[in-house]
Input
Amino acid sequence: MTFVHTPFPQQVVVEVTAACDQQCVFCGRTYMDRPKKTMRPDLFRRIVEEIGRESPQTEVWPTFMGEALLLGDRLFEWIRYARERGCSKLTLNSNGNRLTQHTIDLLVDSGIDRFILSCDGHTKATYEKIRVGGKFEKLYGGAELLLETMRRRGLRRPIVEMQFSVFDENQHEVEDFKRHWLARGVVVKVRPKVYWSGTVSGGEHRVRLDASRTPCLWAMDTCAIHANGNVVMCAIDCEGKYVAGNVETQSVQEIWNGPLRWIRELHMRERFRDLPEICRRCTDWAVKKAQAFFPSKESRSEYEAYVRRGRVLMAGDTVAPQDQAEHFTPDGEVARSEKG
Output
């Protein structure tokens, strides 16, 4: 397998806040011990200014372990600032419970390219059992209002993606979820189980240090920054068990080509036993890939173009053939589904 070092991370996950209005049973944030703080505006500006200057097509995610919409109007001021400073690829995650007409208008005018709504249930009972504190009606009603607003205004951005993370408690609702949202013209992403490097119990069967393990795509292309400026191992390292540096005193590029390059080199050389403990014990190294499903060829083409833009494909990264019943995913995998 061939992997390459890139001069800058292809994705930068920025924790604008670690505060959240839900206590999801499968989320690492629910169980993590580190302080749940909000990033200072000047620190956020420092990060996006560097990205806009050095690598404008790096995908910026102003979300990590928290609900970004809790920041209110200032979130969209920060997003607009990132766009003005040259960041050309912006993706936002949300649990969707704070989508109002006011928030939606700010969202679609902010410059966000892709908006991912994490759902994880297709009935009220299942959703509210998993997403403790969440309200099913708020999420589905807010998503419908977003789609209606975009139709009314003739907007094609942001790309709306409804995400379903699969666990034992909700896997029976995946197919109904897919049918419901594909019929409404949006992309559906189905994620495999993630255990946040052991923060959430389970997943031990995927801990491997032998030849069957492969380099981790989280480590190879993603840089994650906590609210205090700490740059950590990857977007799964929610506790900050491995801190590679801090953007208060170093640039993202310096850290990426320093301690994090060493981590990538160990992965590329398949020296998995020499990795830091969080990597050696990680249950999530094989699940960055997710299945994506599209309501039309047009939406699929648009989505692929966005994901591919500025991206250096690694081993295992593929683009789905246009003439087959397969689905391209944002993290490189091609998932085969039933025809028709």
